[in-house]
DNA sequence: CCAGACGTTGTT
DNA sequence: GTCTGG
DNA sequence: CCAGACGTTGTT
DNA sequence: GTCTGG
Protein backbone atom coordinates (compact mmCIF):
# COMPACT_ATOMS: atom_id res chain seq x y z
CA UNK A 1 0.00 0.00 0.00
CA UNK A 2 2.85 2.35 0.78
CA UNK A 3 4.06 1.76 -2.73
CA UNK A 4 0.61 2.32 -4.14
CA UNK A 5 -0.17 5.51 -2.30
CA UNK A 6 3.29 6.97 -2.03
CA UNK A 7 2.97 7.55 1.67
CA UNK A 8 5.70 7.43 4.26
CA UNK A 9 3.53 7.29 7.35
CA UNK A 10 2.36 3.73 7.07
CA UNK A 11 5.23 1.83 8.56
CA UNK A 12 4.17 -0.20 11.50
CA UNK A 13 0.46 0.43 11.13
CA UNK A 14 -1.10 -2.70 12.61
CA UNK A 15 -3.79 -4.74 10.88
CA UNK A 16 -7.32 -4.18 12.13
CA UNK A 17 -10.06 -6.65 11.31
CA UNK A 18 -13.21 -4.96 12.61
CA UNK A 19 -13.33 -1.23 12.21
CA UNK A 20 -16.63 0.29 13.29
CA UNK A 21 -18.06 3.80 12.86
CA UNK A 22 -16.58 6.44 15.20
CA UNK A 23 -13.25 4.62 15.22
CA UNK A 24 -10.14 6.14 13.63
CA UNK A 25 -9.49 5.30 9.99
CA UNK A 26 -6.45 6.11 7.92
CA UNK A 27 -7.02 8.23 4.84
CA UNK A 28 -4.76 9.69 2.16
CA UNK A 29 -5.09 13.35 1.18
CA UNK A 30 -3.28 15.60 -1.27
CA UNK A 31 -0.35 17.36 0.37
CA UNK A 32 0.02 21.14 0.06
CA UNK A 33 1.67 22.31 -3.18
CA UNK A 34 5.29 21.26 -3.51
CA UNK A 35 8.17 23.66 -3.91
CA UNK A 36 9.97 23.20 -7.21
CA UNK A 37 12.54 20.48 -6.85
CA UNK A 38 11.07 19.15 -3.62
CA UNK A 39 11.08 15.41 -3.29
CA UNK A 40 8.51 15.45 -0.51
CA UNK A 41 5.60 13.10 -1.26
CA UNK A 42 2.56 14.82 -2.74
CA UNK A 43 0.22 12.84 -0.50
CA UNK A 44 -0.04 12.42 3.21
CA UNK A 45 -1.79 10.11 5.60
CA UNK A 46 -4.27 11.39 8.18
CA UNK A 47 -6.21 9.58 10.87
CA UNK A 48 -9.83 10.66 10.94
CA UNK A 49 -12.86 9.66 12.95
CA UNK A 50 -15.17 7.54 10.81
CA UNK A 51 -18.30 9.67 10.83
CA UNK A 52 -18.15 13.02 9.07
CA UNK A 53 -19.10 16.22 10.86
CA UNK A 54 -19.75 19.21 8.59
CA UNK A 55 -18.10 22.46 9.71
CA UNK A 56 -21.38 24.24 10.41
CA UNK A 57 -22.62 21.73 12.97
CA UNK A 58 -23.33 23.41 16.31
CA UNK A 59 -23.34 20.39 18.57
CA UNK A 60 -21.80 17.20 17.19
CA UNK A 61 -23.48 15.16 19.93
CA UNK A 62 -26.85 15.94 18.38
CA UNK A 63 -25.75 15.30 14.83
CA UNK A 64 -26.33 12.12 12.86
CA UNK A 65 -23.33 9.92 12.25
CA UNK A 66 -22.47 10.29 8.57
CA UNK A 67 -20.42 7.21 7.77
CA UNK A 68 -21.43 7.06 4.10
CA UNK A 69 -22.37 9.58 1.45
CA UNK A 70 -24.39 8.67 -1.62
CA UNK A 71 -22.24 9.59 -4.61
CA UNK A 72 -25.31 10.38 -6.71
CA UNK A 73 -26.33 13.21 -4.41
CA UNK A 74 -23.30 14.20 -2.32
CA UNK A 75 -22.47 17.17 -4.56
CA UNK A 76 -25.78 18.79 -3.73
CA UNK A 77 -26.09 17.91 -0.05
CA UNK A 78 -25.35 20.56 2.52
CA UNK A 79 -23.46 18.04 4.60
CA UNK A 80 -21.08 16.92 1.84
CA UNK A 81 -20.92 19.77 -0.66
CA UNK A 82 -17.82 21.48 0.72
CA UNK A 83 -15.93 18.25 1.26
CA UNK A 84 -16.87 17.03 -2.19
CA UNK A 85 -15.25 20.14 -3.64
CA UNK A 86 -12.28 20.62 -1.34
CA UNK A 87 -11.58 17.55 0.76
CA UNK A 88 -11.71 14.32 -1.22
CA UNK A 89 -9.65 11.49 0.22
CA UNK A 90 -8.72 7.88 -0.43
CA UNK A 91 -9.51 5.27 2.18
CA UNK A 92 -7.20 2.25 1.85
CA UNK A 93 -8.51 -1.10 3.02
CA UNK A 94 -8.06 -4.76 2.33
CA UNK A 95 -11.83 -5.06 1.89
CA UNK A 96 -15.12 -4.41 3.64
CA UNK A 97 -17.89 -6.27 5.41
CA UNK A 98 -21.45 -6.35 4.22
CA UNK A 99 -24.51 -8.06 5.59
CA UNK A 100 -27.08 -9.83 3.50
CA UNK A 101 -30.48 -9.19 5.00
CA UNK A 102 -32.95 -11.78 3.78
CA UNK A 103 -36.62 -10.87 3.65
CA UNK A 104 -38.10 -11.33 7.10
CA UNK A 105 -40.51 -14.01 5.86
CA UNK A 106 -37.79 -16.16 4.34
CA UNK A 107 -36.58 -17.50 7.64
CA UNK A 108 -32.99 -17.15 6.46
CA UNK A 109 -30.52 -15.69 8.86
CA UNK A 110 -28.54 -12.53 8.47
CA UNK A 111 -25.32 -13.48 6.70
CA UNK A 112 -22.10 -11.48 6.95
CA UNK A 113 -19.61 -11.34 4.08
CA UNK A 114 -15.99 -10.35 3.93
CA UNK A 115 -15.63 -8.69 0.55
CA UNK A 116 -12.17 -8.18 -0.89
CA UNK A 117 -10.42 -7.70 -4.21
CA UNK A 118 -10.04 -11.01 -6.01
CA UNK A 119 -6.42 -10.20 -6.62
CA UNK A 120 -5.94 -9.55 -2.89
CA UNK A 121 -3.98 -6.55 -1.73
CA UNK A 122 -5.31 -3.12 -1.04
CA UNK A 123 -8.33 -1.33 -2.46
CA UNK A 124 -8.86 2.40 -2.12
CA UNK A 125 -12.34 3.74 -1.50
CA UNK A 126 -13.36 7.26 -2.42
CA UNK A 127 -14.06 9.29 0.69
CA UNK A 128 -14.51 12.77 2.11
CA UNK A 129 -13.10 14.50 5.15
CA UNK A 130 -13.75 17.58 7.24
CA UNK A 131 -11.88 19.21 10.07
CA UNK A 132 -14.32 20.16 12.78
CA UNK A 133 -13.48 23.02 15.12
CA UNK A 134 -15.15 22.52 18.44
CA UNK A 135 -16.06 25.41 20.66
CA UNK A 136 -13.13 24.75 22.97
CA UNK A 137 -10.79 25.29 20.02
CA UNK A 138 -9.77 21.69 19.50
CA UNK A 139 -9.84 20.18 16.03
CA UNK A 140 -11.42 16.87 15.09
CA UNK A 141 -10.73 15.33 11.70
CA UNK A 142 -13.65 13.24 10.46
CA UNK A 143 -14.45 11.37 7.29
CA UNK A 144 -16.87 9.17 5.41
CA UNK A 145 -16.94 6.78 2.46
CA UNK A 146 -18.86 7.38 -0.75
CA UNK A 147 -21.26 4.72 -1.96
CA UNK A 148 -22.73 3.80 -5.32
CA UNK A 149 -25.32 1.31 -6.52
CA UNK A 150 -23.96 -2.22 -6.17
CA UNK A 151 -22.73 -4.08 -9.23
CA UNK A 152 -24.40 -7.38 -10.10
CA UNK A 153 -22.04 -9.45 -7.98
CA UNK A 154 -22.42 -7.39 -4.83
CA UNK A 155 -26.14 -6.81 -5.32
CA UNK A 156 -26.71 -10.43 -4.29
CA UNK A 157 -25.74 -9.20 -0.85
CA UNK A 158 -26.60 -5.53 -0.68
CA UNK A 159 -27.87 -2.75 -2.92
CA UNK A 160 -24.98 -0.37 -2.27
CA UNK A 161 -21.21 -0.65 -2.36
CA UNK A 162 -18.28 1.67 -1.69
CA UNK A 163 -16.85 3.74 -4.52
CA UNK A 164 -13.54 2.22 -5.62
CA UNK A 165 -10.86 4.53 -7.01
CA UNK A 166 -8.26 2.82 -9.19
CA UNK A 167 -4.57 3.73 -8.91
CA UNK A 168 -4.52 5.47 -12.28
CA UNK A 169 -7.24 7.80 -10.97
CA UNK A 170 -5.74 8.55 -7.54
CA UNK A 171 -4.19 11.85 -8.59
CA UNK A 172 -7.31 13.14 -10.28
CA UNK A 173 -9.48 12.12 -7.36
CA UNK A 174 -7.27 13.81 -4.79
CA UNK A 175 -6.55 16.99 -6.76
CA UNK A 176 -9.14 19.27 -5.21
CA UNK A 177 -7.15 22.40 -6.10
CA UNK A 178 -7.93 22.01 -9.77
CA UNK A 179 -10.51 19.26 -10.00
CA UNK A 180 -14.09 20.25 -9.33
CA UNK A 181 -16.77 17.69 -8.56
CA UNK A 182 -17.87 17.61 -12.19
CA UNK A 183 -14.35 16.52 -13.10
CA UNK A 184 -14.52 13.41 -10.95
CA UNK A 185 -18.16 12.26 -11.22
CA UNK A 186 -17.06 9.66 -13.75
CA UNK A 187 -14.94 7.99 -11.07
CA UNK A 188 -17.95 7.29 -8.86
CA UNK A 189 -19.22 4.13 -10.48
CA UNK A 190 -19.60 0.51 -9.41
CA UNK A 191 -16.45 -1.59 -9.50
CA UNK A 192 -16.03 -4.09 -12.33
CA UNK A 193 -18.01 -7.30 -11.86
CA UNK A 194 -14.90 -9.37 -11.27
CA UNK A 195 -13.13 -6.92 -9.00
CA UNK A 196 -14.41 -8.28 -5.68
CA UNK A 197 -15.10 -11.67 -4.21
CA UNK A 198 -17.54 -12.13 -1.34
CA UNK A 199 -16.59 -14.60 1.34
CA UNK A 200 -19.27 -15.71 3.82
CA UNK A 201 -18.03 -15.33 7.38
CA UNK A 202 -19.38 -16.10 10.81
CA UNK A 203 -21.43 -13.67 12.84
CA UNK A 204 -18.46 -12.99 15.09
CA UNK A 205 -18.02 -9.88 13.00
CA UNK A 206 -21.37 -8.57 14.18
CA UNK A 207 -19.83 -7.67 17.50
CA UNK A 208 -17.35 -4.82 17.42
CA UNK A 209 -15.53 -6.26 20.41
CA UNK A 210 -14.31 -9.10 18.19
CA UNK A 211 -11.30 -7.78 16.37
CA UNK A 212 -9.10 -10.71 15.33
CA UNK A 213 -8.08 -12.21 12.01
CA UNK A 214 -10.46 -15.14 12.65
CA UNK A 215 -13.32 -12.83 11.64
CA UNK A 216 -12.34 -13.47 8.04
CA UNK A 217 -12.35 -17.26 8.24
CA UNK A 218 -14.71 -18.55 5.54
CA UNK A 219 -17.86 -20.42 6.56
CA UNK A 220 -20.41 -22.38 4.55
CA UNK A 221 -23.73 -20.59 4.89
CA UNK A 222 -26.60 -22.99 5.68
CA UNK A 223 -29.21 -23.21 2.91
CA UNK A 224 -28.31 -21.42 -0.30
CA UNK A 225 -25.59 -22.41 -2.70
CA UNK A 226 -22.62 -20.22 -2.05
CA UNK A 227 -19.21 -21.01 -3.36
CA UNK A 228 -16.80 -21.47 -0.45
CA UNK A 229 -13.96 -19.01 -0.35
CA UNK A 230 -10.43 -19.92 -1.23
CA UNK A 231 -7.91 -20.16 1.57
CA UNK A 232 -5.57 -17.64 -0.02
CA UNK A 233 -4.22 -15.78 2.95
CA UNK A 234 -4.16 -12.04 3.27
CA UNK A 235 -1.04 -9.96 3.45
CA UNK A 236 -2.12 -8.97 6.92
CA UNK A 237 -0.94 -5.40 6.54
CA UNK A 238 -4.11 -3.45 6.53
CA UNK A 239 -7.41 -5.06 7.20
CA UNK A 240 -9.96 -2.30 7.36
CA UNK A 241 -13.69 -2.70 7.76
C1' DC B 1 -38.82 34.90 1.80
C1' DC B 2 -37.83 32.56 6.25
C1' DA B 3 -37.32 28.65 9.33
C1' DG B 4 -35.53 24.56 9.87
C1' DA B 5 -32.94 20.86 8.38
C1' DC B 6 -28.72 19.35 6.99
C1' DG B 7 -27.92 11.54 6.36
C1' DT B 8 -27.67 6.60 5.35
C1' DT B 9 -29.02 2.13 5.95
C1' DG B 10 -31.19 -0.97 8.10
C1' DT B 11 -24.94 -4.27 12.71
C1' DT B 12 -19.13 -1.98 9.28
C1' DG C 1 -22.64 27.40 5.29
C1' DT C 2 -26.36 25.86 2.15
C1' DC C 3 -30.49 23.70 0.86
C1' DT C 4 -35.45 22.59 1.36
C1' DG C 5 -40.17 23.06 2.59
C1' DG C 6 -43.91 25.86 3.69
C1' DC D 1 -46.96 0.28 4.08
C1' DC D 2 -50.52 3.91 3.50
C1' DA D 3 -52.25 8.59 2.94
C1' DG D 4 -52.08 12.36 0.48
C1' DA D 5 -50.54 15.01 -3.13
C1' DC D 6 -50.38 15.69 -7.84
C1' DG D 7 -48.17 23.29 -9.34
C1' DT D 8 -45.42 27.70 -9.22
C1' DT D 9 -43.53 31.85 -7.05
C1' DG D 10 -40.88 33.66 -3.38
C1' DT D 11 -40.55 42.00 -2.90
C1' DT D 12 -46.64 43.17 -6.29
C1' DG E 1 -52.22 6.39 -12.00
C1' DT E 2 -47.99 7.40 -9.59
C1' DC E 3 -44.99 9.56 -6.53
C1' DT E 4 -43.71 11.25 -1.90
C1' DG E 5 -43.60 11.66 2.96
C1' DG E 6 -44.35 9.79 7.33
From TrEMBL:
What are the EC numbers? 3.4.-.-
Listed A to Z, the keywords are: Covalent protein-DNA linkage, DNA damage, DNA-binding, Hydrolase, Lyase, Protease
| Region of interest: Disordered | 216-241
Keyword Glycosyltransferase: yes or no?
no
Instruction: Note the InterPro entries from the entry.
Output: SRAP, SRAP-like
Any keyword ATP-binding?
no
EC class, as a word, reads hydrolase
* Top-rank lineage group of the source organism: Bacteria
What start-end ranges are recorded for coiled-coil regions in this protein? Answer: none
Q: Which PANTHER family match?
A: ABASIC SITE PROCESSING PROTEIN HMCES, DC12-RELATED
The entry assigns this protein to a family as follows: Belongs to the SOS response-associated peptidase family.
This one is known as Abasic site processing protein
Its source organism is Peteryoungia aggregata LMG 23059
Amino acid sequence: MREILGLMELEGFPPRYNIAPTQPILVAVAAPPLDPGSNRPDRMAVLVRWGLIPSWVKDPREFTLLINARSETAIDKASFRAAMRHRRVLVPASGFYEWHRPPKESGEKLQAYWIRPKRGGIVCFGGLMETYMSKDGSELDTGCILTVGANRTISEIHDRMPVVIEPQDFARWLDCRHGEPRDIVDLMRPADEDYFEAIPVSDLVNKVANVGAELQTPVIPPPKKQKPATDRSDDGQMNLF
